[in-house]
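Lab manual, section 2.4: Encoding a predicted structure.

Procedure: take the sequence of the chain (108 residues), apply the prediction step described in section 2.3, and record the output as structure tokens. A sample record is shown.
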Amino acid sequence: MVNSLSARPGDAVSLVMATSALFWATLVVYVAPVAALLGGAFLGQGLAERFSWDPDGSAALFGLGFLAAALLVVRVAGRGMGRRKSFSPRMGRIVRRACPEPGGRSDT
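Recorded output:
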């Protein structure tokens, strides 16, 4: 992270991130795996009825398989998002300065 505020070690700073970036990151990280798990389970159950498989076992197998695939996609997408500047938080403002060193001066 770029120290755009010239913050010193120990300073408390607020972080800012675009709302749209936060929304998309949340969607990818949390919603996509759950949707894949449920979608895989429903698909597995539907295929089980068609091919006379065990519905519970098929739902579990397909659900976990889709979940694993979604987690791999999330990992790859997360790396790509991490490289984009719009998905990186930045310093908003200094909330509290650290205590000054003995003999030093405080900016607050």
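Check your result against the sample. The chain has a mean pLDDT of 89.
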